[in-house]
Specification:
Elements lengths: L2 H11 L1 H6 L5 H8 L12 E7 L8 H6 L8 E7 L4 H7 L4 E6 L7 H15 L4 E5 L3 H5 L3 E3 L2 H7 L18 H13 L4 E6 L1 H15 L4 E6 L8 E2 L5 E3 L5 H22 L3 E6 L6 H10 L3 E2 L2 H5 L4 H9 L12 H17 L5 E6 L7 H21 L3 H4 L3 H17 L8 H8 L3 H7 L16 H18 L7 E2 H10 L4 H8 L8 E2 L8 H10 L11 H10 L5 E6 L1 H4 L5 H19 L5 E6 L9 E6 L4 E6 L2 E6 L9 H14 L26 H6 L8
Parallel strand pairs: 3-4, 3-6, 6-7, 7-16, 10-12, 10-15, 11-12
Antiparallel strand pairs: 1-2, 2-17, 4-5, 8-9, 13-14, 16-17, 18-19
The structure holds 1,6-di-O-phosphono-beta-D-fructofuranose (FBP).
1,6-di-O-phosphono-beta-D-fructofuranose binds next to loops.
């Protein structure tokens, strides 16, 4: 080893250097040692389940048919028990093997679910074992599992991601996969399997629970997804699980970054930061982000779907017709709405801002939704008849477009074939290639459209940029000029501001931000106006000061685009999610120890302070309904989307104008603060939940 290498090695071995470059930062050490509070019932050594009829479900006949053994499950409240009878003691405390699997995208808090189950199981019987299935449901099918040890659990307490056992999106959807899964559970002698996942994964949990019912293996689901679209209510609207875990942490991470962008753009005053925020379909995350950091414009998909173009309706009325295109938003409409905000801010000198676009917004835009549904059907049909190979058979965009063209031709020859007609094909050919590619992208294992792979923000912002250019040419997109600056500039050149003000500005003397008249769209038109008003001879050049004023009035629309998704999924859990998930882990164990199956662990009253939290077992099967997946109707857990009548949305809607801040003066941006476990700085629960609880009697 050369002298240089020796020296290098010596440096790397210095304690200060080792400490400095250690993979384990102080933050991680603090996080690992944080002990989340436990709900009061878990302070008892034992728990029992109390079934309640307080909640009602409208059972779908198909669920009853396919899930007969778990369909009549009731909601179960977990209760503490200090001195059980000996039978209960023995049953509760028996040695158990429990398997756990993460399914779908990571969500902050997953490790604490494992920690909760581990702590509850080991304190009840140290002989019990927890097995983690590796890489998601594939781990169950392939029997890839590892025993979860205390050391492993301690290493991951309160940390983000699903790194301990990883995750995957495979769906256990065939008889063969089901048989292989059953074999794995049998081989590991599992008493129970815990499926941590979203709507699709909890659906899977219900089917596994049904399959394993006769074999005595219990299956419990856990509501996970940053999207926040697992919100469970009974048929009368009573909340059973107000929010999936991971939502709060992801929203907090997104809001933190977006708040920093707000600080940046209001300092440098030259960019519009365009932020796409994850959420496959529902806009819950965008709504929470809006509440947390008050961006200038936040689109909410569910609101867009409700859009009615009053102008078109009026026009149609006058023409004695009905304009169906007036209902629902088109991409073009939407770009106009965004432009309106941009133009209005520019008028008061703010040629910058923050725009939040939910990832799933396209789902709520008529023309795009139509494409998504049609293409889903075409791809699913092809895969069913050709053994799942659409994307292999047509790897290139051109191949796919050719295939669609053939479909369109077919529709002309055979009127019974109507999924893809020539009009669809023409419309589809009108959209940019990158967007076509996005819409044709492969569906996930559950048949979901992969919104994260589509550059939604680019599609929209291209339209916005084009329209702003048109508005510029029409003299309708101008940068308002501060009156002081105008006067100072004119005085500097020895010109009386009042001489030219009324000639070049449309609001001179009326506002602190001066707007150049719409017909002045270039230096040439400026000259023409001055000549026309008799203020400049044809042979003379426009005074330098006026040229400067004009140049300043021309906005340059510059954007920076950002995608907030994977970073939030990987972020560390907030206090709320750490505590929520740890208690979910304890709830899971209570459900298992009292013999439940086909239930989802949940905690009621999350919208209230911690002391009101109430751990529950919620039946999955009665909450399922039929949905079209891969062009077939399938039973799935219903996704919850943003309710446009909810207080949270109504608050955001009411403050929309204020947060746009298209008036002179300060912005309304809000800094949500860091994600700490110790201080009071981070909100203790999602703001959406806080506001939506206003609906309920007795709470605020
Ligand atoms: P889950 O529903 O599995 O929790 O995942 C949600 C999500 O994060 C969406 O917000 C996003 O559209 C999608 O996952 C991205 O999936 P992928 O990891 O396959 O890119």
């Amino acid at each position: 080893m050369g002298q240089e290498n020796l020296e290098q090695e010596a440096i790397l071995n210095l304690p200060i250097v080792r400490e400095t470059v250690s993979n384990i930062s102080n933050e991680v050490i603090i996080r690992r040692s944080f002990a989340p509070r436990r709900c009061a019932v878990f302070e008892s050594s034992y728990t029992f389940l109390e079934e309640t009829d307080r909640f009602e479900f409208k059972i779908h006949p198909e669920s009853a048919k396919q899930l007969p053994d778990i369909i009549y499950n009731k909601v179960q409240t977990v209760k503490g028990l200090d001195s059980p009878g000996s039978d209960k003691k023995q049953l509760y405390g028996k040695k158990r093997n429990i398997g756990i699997v993460f399914s779908g995208g990571p969500a902050p808090g997953g490790h604490n679910v494992i920690a909760g189950i581990f702590d509850a199981a080991k304190s009840t019987n140290p002989e019990s074992k927890i097995f983690g299935f590796l890489m998601g449901p594939d781990g169950i099918i392939e029997n890839e599992a590892m025993e979860v040890t205390r050391e492993l659990v301690d290493n991951y307490r309160n940390l983000g991601g699903f790194g301990m056992i990883k995750t995957g999106r495979t769906k256990i959807d065939t008889a063969e996969k089901m048989t292989m899964s059953a074999q794995t559970l049998n081989a590991l002698q599992l008493d129970a399997l815990v499926v941590v996942g979203g709507d699709d994964s909890n659906t899977n949990a219900a089917f596994l629970a049904q399959e394993m019912f006769s074999k005595g293996v219990q299956v419990i689901g856990v509501p996970k997804t940053i999207d926040g679209d697992i919100q469970v209510r009974d048929s009368r609207g009573n909340d059973l699980c107000a929010m999936s875990f991971g939502f709060h942490s992801a929203a907090h991470a997104f809001a933190g970054s977006i708040s920093n962008l707000a600080t940046d753009c209001s300092s440098d005053v030259k960019y519009w930061h365009v932020c796409k925020v994850m959420g496959r379909v529902a806009s819950h995350l965008a709504l929470e982000v809006a509440l947390k950091c008050h961006p200038n414009i936040t689109l909410i998909g569910e609101d867009i779907a409700d859009y009615i173009d009053q102008k078109r309706i009026e026009r149609a009325k006058q023409e004695n017709t009905v304009d169906y295109t007036a209902y629902g938003m088109t991409l073009r409409n939407l770009s106009r709405v965004i432009c309106d905000g941009i133009v209005r801010r520019a008028e008061v000198g703010k040629n910058y801002g923050v725009l939040v676009i939910p990832e799933g917004v396209l789902e709520f835009i008529n023309e795009i939704q139509m494409f998504i549904i049609k293409l889903n059907t075409i791809i699913a049909d092809y895969n069913q008849t050709h053994d799942n190979i659409f994307h292999k058979d047509f790897p290139l965009l051109e191949d796919k477009l050719d295939f669609l063209r053939r479909q369109a031709r077919l529709s002309r020859e055979n009127p019974n074939f109507s999924v893809w007609n020539t009009r669809d094909d023409d419309l589809f050919n009108d959209i940019p290639a990158f967007f076509q590619e996005g819409l044709l992208t492969e569906r996930d294992a559950h048949g979901n459209f992969q919104f994260s792979l589509v550059q939604t923000e680019k599609v929209l912002m291209d339209l916005v940029t084009d329209y702003l250019e048109i508005l510029k040419d029409e003299g309708k997109y101008k940068l308002g000029i501060a009156k002081n600056w105008y006067e100072k500039t004119m005085n500097k050149y020895g010109i009386d501001p009042d001489k030219y003000g009324p000639v070049i500005f449309k609001n001179y003397g009326l506002s602190d931000f001066l707007l150049i008249k719409p017909d002045i769209i270039s230096k040439k038109t400026l000259k023409q106006v001055l000549e026309h008003e008799g203020m400049l001879k044809e042979s003379k050049d426009v005074p330098q000061a006026l040229k400067k004023v004009f140049e300043k009035s021309v906005p340059k629309f510059k954007t920076q685009t950002h995608f907030y998704g994977y970073d939030g999924r990987g972020s560390d859990p907030t206090w709320f999610d750490c505590t929520y998930t740890y208690n979910l882990g304890f709830t899971v164990f209570s459900l298992i120890a009292s013999g439940a199956t086909g239930q989802m662990a949940a905690i009621r009253n999350l919208e209230m302070g911690f002391d009101h939290w109430e751990p529950l077992g919620v039946p999955i099967a009665p909450m399922m309904h039929l949905e079209e997946r891969k062009s077939k109707l399938e039973l799935v857990l219903e996704k919850s989307i943003v309710d446009v009548n909810s207080p949270a949305f109504r608050v955001v809607k009411a403050l929309r104008e204020k947060w746009l801040a298209a008036v002179p003066g300060n912005e309304c941006y809000r800094n949500p603060g860091p994600n700490t476990l110790t201080g009071d700085t981070v909100e203790d629960r999602p703001l959406t939940l806080k506001l939506n609880s206003l609906n309920k009697d007795g709470i605020r």
